[in-house]
Every structure is written in C-alpha cells, then in structure tokens.
Amino acid sequence: MARxxxxxxxxxxxxxxxxxxxxxxxxxxxxxxPGDANTVSVxxxxxxxxxxxxxxxxxxxxxxxxxLAGASRIPPWVSTMVIGSLVRPELxxxxxxxxxxxxxxxxxxxxxxxxxxxxxxxxxxLRSVRGQRDAFLIEIKPRTLGVRTPAVRQEAARWARSAADxxxxxxxxxxxxxIRQQADIIHSVDLTDSSDIRGVKRYLEDHGLMxxxxxxxxxxxxxxxSLHGVSFFAxxxxxxxxxxxxxxxxxxSKSAKDLADIFRHIVDDMHMSLDELKSAEVxxxxxxxxxxxxxxDDSLRRVLSLITSPPPPHGAHDETIPSEPIPLNAxxxxxxxxxxxxxxxxxxxxxxxxxxxxxxxxxxxxxxATWLDNFARRLDQLPIAGVERELLGFGxxxxxxxxxxxxxxxxxxxxxxxxxxxxxxxxxxxxxWVSASxxxxxxxxxxxxxxxSNLQEVRERQAAAVTxxxxxxxxxxxxxxxxxxxxxxxxRSQHGDEFFK
Length: 501
Prior knowledge:
single chain; 501 residues; alpha+beta; twelve-stranded antiparallel β-sheet; 17 helices; disordered N terminus
C-alpha cells in the first residue's frame, strides 16, 4: 500500500529548461515505455557523477552511500534510468511502473539472476529474471534492460513483446517534452483532464483558499482545472538548483502568486513539506508558473523518494564494476558475499534513519508524513540477497516504525509497548481529512461537490490527535535509535570495525 503513495508525486514538481538534448539515451529509452504512462522520471546518473561536486567528493566511488543511498537505489554503473508509471491521482493509486536502462557489457542476465537468487528464463520469447522484489527484469533488446513491477506475468510479457517489436504507443507530448529537457533529475506528471472544476471549487472553499474578488472567484477555479501537468527538474553543480513549473491550459501569468500559494498549500496538505519551497522565487510566462530554489541534499533525497523506481537489477549492485566480464563459473566466497551485502544493507538503512532524524528536527516536520512513508517503502525494496537474517529483521522493524511515525503525523493513534517493542494502531481510525481531493474525489466513494463538507471540524480533530500523539512519536523514535545501537553492537562484535568502513 505504501508503494501506492507515489500518487502525490503527481501533483508535485516541475521545472522548465530551455535547452534540450539532441541525441539523448533518455529519449531513446522512453520510446520503450508503455504509451499510457502518465508519469515519467529520469535520473541521468552519468551526468550527476560528472559534476564538479561529484568529482570533488568522490561520488563515483561511493555513489550508493553519499548520494543515492536510501533514495533511488540506482547503481552508479547505470548511465541513465528512465521510469514510466501509470498512476490514478483521484484514487491515490499506482497501477504499474516500468524502468528502462542500458546495461554495460559486464552486466549479464546470468549475473543478475545469480544476485536475485533466481534463474534466466524466457518470457514471451525474451530472456528474463523474476526478481526478489515483485518485479520482472527483462532483456528487451541486447544491452537494454526493462524492469516491470508489479510482477504480473501476463502484463509484463505483453509489454515486453510490444517494446521489443516497436509496437508501443507514444507517450503524451507533455511527457515527451519533459524528457527532452536538460536536467540531471526529472519527474513529470501529465494531469490533463484529471481535475473537475466543481471539485476544485470545493477544495478551495474547504481550505479557505477561494479569493474574495468576484472575478477571481470565477477565473481561479477554471484556471486550476486546466492544469496540464507538474514536473520537477534538478541540476547538480556546486549546489543543486531546482525549478517547479506548473503548466496550465490558459494564461496564468496574472495569477502566478495565488497559484504558487495554492501549490504550496497542496504540498503541505499532502504532508510533503519542503523548507525551500516556502521561499522559492515565483515567476510566470504565459501558461506556466515557475518556483525556483536551491535544494539541500536532504530535500533532494526526499524528492528522489517520490520517483517510482522499480527494483533495480542487482546483478551488479557492487559499487565498482570490473573492467572485464566475470565468468559464469566464477566463485565468490559466501562469507565475503554475505559481508558485502550485509554492509550495504546496513548502510542504506542507517542513511534512511539519519534522513528521518533530520526530518524530525525540521521546523515543518508535522507535514512530512508522506516523506516517511516513501522512505519506509524504500527500505522494503532494498536488495536482500546475501544479507544476514538479523539485519533483515532490523530493516523490517525500522520500516514498520517509520510508518507508525507517519500514521501518527496524520492523526492516527498508535500505542507503543516499549517493553515488548510492539505497536498497536487505532483500527477504527478514518482519515476523513484526506477526503477533500484536489481532483474532486471524496473518500468512501462520494463526489466532493455533492457532500456538505465538515473538513474544518475534521482537521481540528486531526490537529488535536497529532498533538496528542507527540509522546508516542518520541517513544517510536527511541525504539528505532535503540534498535540501531544494538545492531551496531552486534555487527561490531561479529565483524569488527571493518563492517562500518
């Protein structure tokens, strides 16, 4: 269920850059995506690792730990990864996700199969591996790998065969234009026809965002209902510059400030607060409104957690790739393999805990539940092949407790038994505060414009519940930190200080 939270990526982040790529692998890979995808993400890892900052800080040697750990899980040997998804914003649901990347010669399907503790088999005539994390890894064509999740065999086979035969429909022009933009990280969502003007009016009224001016009261809902899409583009140089652009079907330049304020409110309302967004510079040009800012590493990892990245091929998850192919009969010591896999797993879990700690200390931490859910989902999708059982239990407990923190921040009561280290949720909790949707949907199947809203009353109850749950959140956080301290002690006892290097 947490994986479905990617929804909100839908309403978030867009950048508009003038320059485009003439011959870009992202563009080529995107042609293999299903045509009905309405969300596209691109991570140009090679460009990131070639930046001044990456070279100065040695990211290419420790990319998983220093930049992508706990966020995208993309191996540093990947040059470019393109991910397409079908999401249903009004239902807060992701239907499927499809990733594509070029494989270096040393990464074979056999190596991937060994890492996934699986085997190479044929899927619709194509070489494939059933991954550990609910995904099919398919060789669409030589040196091009597709990763499809969830691992529904018939759906994966139909897509893979269509991609291999070049019979896919085209992505929307909006998404194609986003992919062509020059940026290191892209996340773009096509929202054409996703909103209802009556639902938009109700959302504005319920949230106290409807302007007093008579003309604006008519124009603003119409303008918001014409939203074509939202995308996020970031470029990493000495720092990380990002822009969010909202693209409308009508001239939005005269309402730029109001639209930016509403966008910020929606972001907070979805518990996806970013400190930098509050002070972002707002500009407008005809049908676009742009919010520009510099992002901290913490904020960038939070945004990366939105990307619906399917489980990557861990056949070469090693931080460095040998210059020559490894023979299929090559043997790796089980002890060495377990040590390296366990070490990587522990580092990734620790990175997430550190990121959550910084979120907890943020001035806007009460609006961060979605970030917590996303990081918990990342933990669930970490590679587990060769990882010690004790560490896997640790990762599962951390994931569960992070989700408990998120639930508490949404107003759900979570009872903590510190002695037994267990969590009990309020099973009668109904999150009515999320029922008023920007897209016009209301929880429990009713349309927002047909229901008399009690949103203010519900929100007041929610706020009171969030405040009341502060002590429980402290207890949950203490469980996480004490658990990590105990695992560190055990790993040091078993493996020595080398485990933490």
